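User: Second chain of the day. Same drill as before.
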Amino acid sequence: MPRPLSRLLLLAAAALLLACGAPSRGDARGKRPPVRPQKIQEKVQVTLPDGLVVKAELADDPAERAIGLMGREDVPEGKGMLFVIESAGHQPFYMKGMLTSIDILWLSEEAGGGRVVHIARQAKPCEKDPCPNYFPALAARYVLELRAGAADRHGAQEGALVRFTLPAPVPPAR
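Assistant: Same format as last time:
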């Protein structure tokens, strides 16, 4: 084979190998595609210490809790997500798959809602592993995620009462 032709074939093969290993068109930065935001139909009204009523999506099963607010480009003021944990504990949360910063409030279980036992303020999205975990200082039964800065704007500090009423569980079918 003449030398220029072999060099051309070698360059073409190298280009083909690089193209096969390159990120897809929808993933031009080499990152994983974003998580598709979930739409939880069940909502609960959560009243913050200053009286602001938040319409929170209710994440009360493992699949909903695993995705949470991932993939959302924004968490509007007055919106959020309330996570119901099976039993009180030191449930960690992380920001992998998040596109915006949020406040994370861990709440104890009390009649009519829960008391704030810990806050991760302005938790930032995590773009690559390993992502840090945010742990509460005290055991919590609920976790409320809000727009970043909302905890401070609406008086949600450690010890403050956050009010909500969970819907009654549906009895099993007979």
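Residues 3-21 form the longest helix (19 residues).

User: Great, on to the next one.
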